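Handout, section 4.2: multi-component inputs.
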Amino acid sequence: MFPRTDDLLRALPELIWCGFGMLAMLLQPFVRSRHFFTGLALVGAVGGTGAAFVAGATPGEGFYGLIESDVFSFFFRLLVGLVAVLVVLAADSYLERENLPFAEFYALLLFATAGMGVLASARELLTAFIGLELSSISSYILAGFRRDSTKSSEASLKYFLLGSFATAFFLYGIALVYGATGTTNLGRMDDADPGSNLLKLGLSLILIGIGFKVAAAPFQIWTPDVYEGAPTPVTALFSAGPKAAAFALLLRIFASVPAATHFWFWAFWVLAALTMFAGNLGALLQTNVKRLLAYSSIAHAGYILVAFAAVTFMANDLNGGATPAYAAVLFYLLSYALVKIGAFTIVSEIGGWGEKNLTLDDYAGLAQRQPVAAAALSLYLLSLLGLPVTAGFFGKFYIFKAAVNSHLIWLAVLMAINSIIGAYYYLRVIVVMYMREGSAEAMAAAPVRFPVAVNVVLAVTAIGTVYFGLFPNQVLNFILQPNLIAH
Amino acid sequence: MIPTNYYIVLSAILFGLGVLAFIFKRNIISIFMSIELMLNAVNLAFVAFSQAMHKLDGQVFVLFVIVVAAAEAAVGLAIIILTARNRQSLNVERVDLLKL
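Output:
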């Protein structure tokens, strides 16, 4: 009854991530060294990411249709693996500074990554549910990892309550889809009737459930609180990893289920418009940089949903007309993950012990005190804003193009308006860093020296941002394949 | 033989009650229990559909939901205890440090 070798190879990244997570928990009572566990987590994260190539080289269905190894899951496994590696590097010095247990942190991080990998490769709603819960339950604990901080435990509680609430919606949606189609396997739903009300209701509930996870308005209320209260490296993980994985699941569901109707088109249209405005208008009022970035991540979920509206508009075009819209989502998630992790890593280091220096005033004069950090943060913010020569520009450009190609002119106009609102608060941070004098005591204090691991994170994310901003074609040619998502 | 519709309506009512309790209850433990109620409504729907279509996969799904709900309850109660210890209250209205 041992599984076939091919099946194991197709799930190898998740197996490695889980295996190293368990190893870290088992070794925790015996080894006291922080460097050992950081090394172990790094090996596990890199190993799992490397195993994505093995899984990618064995395409096809695994475990009788439970998971799917295709270009799509390969891309997302690489992405969440990269996120995990960067978060391990960023968390190392943070855990030491805050005196937090490291073995459990890395174990939960690897479990969460495995859950995201399962989500990205799920071809059956059952696997999707397990992946979603694996990543969510680990995330609830990670959000409350600073146990003595009331803010952190509050973030954890809010995330847990609203997250499980969303999971219940997701599950009820699956139950109704099962009732409408007679199966939970996404590959076998082709002949379902798209007009069936039960199917529509089920998919709506699934959309609500995933909408919570990706922080789409009106389900985004928890996001700023959780992002602010969670330890900053964990916030970096939240804004990049689970969001990408949940969007991956949403893409796969709407690519497989016959959903090319006006109903879904308008659902995504409204969701995208609401999310963009909720994020950008909320961010205008913020003086806390961590919270500002949280609102900006809501806004970016809105931009990605614009591409989803384009996908549902094009989905009945069997000649691969929707592929550019898929590619826009994938490229956007990649550029966005790099930028957000870099930005939150800087926030984490500038925050200092106990995350004290988070307000905009603490960033005044940063360009004189720490020119490198200020320059890197400016680069990330410009990429979030979507300026040329950064990856964010092409991310926005492709979504814009997909929207215009699908005749979503009004949504494209709303997106442009929102980009202009976004410019205000992104540039405000840059202006404060470069133009405003810091307080006397802040200027007198010795500059914070960034540890090597943090510098590696900044270098990787900054170089990645500029590289994909100059040469987006390499990624695009890889994504723009007719068999991107297996049918 | 009770028609399947009855089960589905019952499960929808249970789910709706869970949603209402989640929104209107003030005690964290009650809110947590309302989530469990919603999950059980899901289980009922799965079993009813599975029985109506004479397929087993819906019932297998229920087993997974039960196991994951147990795991979620373990983590959730730990988080609730942590919050209660940090602020000596189980009323959600007093969990209000993080605000606009």
